[in-house]
Specification:
Structural class: mainly alpha
Oligomer: single chain
Radius of gyration: 28 Å
Mean pLDDT: 84
Distance between the termini: 53 Å
Number of helices: 14
Number of strands: 0
Low-confidence stretches: 4-14
Order of helices and strands: HHHHHHHHHHHHHH
Length: 353
């Protein structure tokens, strides 16, 4: 009996593999940071970013070596892959946070109620003062009109491709959606310029810019909605159809509510994509220093165009206004995303009984 117990204990001990302590990654981060700073200083490099690159390299190598020595080759390769993912994540996030911090730090100098409530009408550009109210109004109207144009067309197109699309027409629609995805913004602006303004002889307006933005927005809405609809289980459709519910009502009451979270996120991604476009605005909206609340007549401004315009002036006062407008634009996109998250959570199907 004791022999059997001893053999079982020996087998269990042989199956148990050595593991590094849980605090090992944190210790490696500290040690790699010190090693990266030391290597950078020794090589005469004073940039913290260069030190960080050396630290990341040391962290990856040290993680693999320690894992191979203690845990074996398989676990070492797992730690190597994990380290590479974390390093790539930090390399992607650090510039983003750096840009955000720079924008907040410089934009807050002139961002106040006066800046948000006044335009540049009658303001000398080399002097402090003025605001971006006219550009905010233009952005809200142009993006809103583009959304009203693009979202219904994009949703209906995606529903057709997923639920009804068969044969050559569906293939043609898919092909043109793929082509539109890669269209540069300036090409969309030139198309509306030649058709709407030159051929049909309409004037420059915010609506013309909104049509160009809608062209850029539609393929994103179609693709994101199409993927979300494909994720809806076929069992839900079959259950609804088995009860005698018409297909159009199944799509409206079952499929779309199930995918509403992803659809809303895709729409917000499309809105964020067009909110920062300036090339179509330069061609079609033409810019303005005063307030124009009518997007269907006369020149307007927008936040991207206002940033470009102020930065081009090349003085300290205009630079400050450009940074403040960039901060407003970032806040605008973030608010839209928060609203989209709230709508998606509110409209998403409730789980549980």
């Amino acid at each position: 009996m004791s022999t059997v117990v001893d053999k079982g204990a020996h087998r269990a001990s042989s199956l148990k593999q050595a593991r590094l302590p849980r605090w090992t990654p944190y210790a490696l981060v500290v040690g790699s940071g010190a090693a990266g700073a030391g290597i950078g200083t020794a090589l005469g490099m004073g940039s913290p970013f260069q030190w960080g690159l050396f630290a990341a390299l040391v962290f990856i190598i040290a993680s693999y070596i320690l894992g191979a020595m203690v845990e074996g080759g398989r676990q070492a390769r797992d730690r190597l892959a994990t380290s590479l993912v974390w390093v790539c994540f930090l390399l992607a996030v650090i510039p983003l946070f750096s840009l955000l911090w720079e924008t907040i730090d410089r934009g807050r100098t002139v961002l106040d109620g006066y800046f948000l409530g006044h335009s540049m009408e009658g303001v000398q550009t080399i002097l402090p003062g003025g605001g971006a109210y006219h550009a905010i109004i233009g952005t809200l109207e142009q993006v809103g009109l583009a959304t009203l144009i693009a979202v219904p067309i994009g949703l209906l197109t995606a529903i057709y491709l997923v639920e009804y699309g068969r044969g050559q027409l569906a293939k043609a629609v898919t092909f043109f959606v793929d082509v539109m995805t890669g269209i540069p913004s300036i090409v969309a602006g030139l198309f509306i310029l030649s058709f709407w303004i030159i051929i049909l002889d309409f004037s420059y307006s915010g609506f013309a810019g909104a049509m160009a933005l809608a062209i850029l927005m539609m393929p994103i809405v179609v693709r994101s909605t199409e993927e979300m609809l494909k994720l809806v289980p076929d069992e839900l459709r079959e259950a609804s159809l088995a009860l005698g519910v018409p297909k159009w009502r199944t799509i409206l009451k079952v499929v779309l509510p199930t995918a509403i979270g992803g659809i809303t996120t895709g729409v917000m991604l499309a809105v964020a994509r067009i909110a920062g476009e300036s090339a179509p605005i330069v061609l079609l909206v033409f810019g303005a220093t005063g307030i124009n609340n009518n997007p269907f007549e006369g020149a307007q401004s927008s936040l991207p165009y206002y940033i470009y315009e102020q930065w081009q002036l090349g003085n300290d006062a205009s630079f400050n206004r450009a940074w403040a407008a960039a901060l407003v634009l970032i806040a605008f996109v973030m608010i839209l995303n928060l609203v989209a998250r709230g709508i998606a959570r509110w409209k998403a199907p409730k789980s549980g009984r």
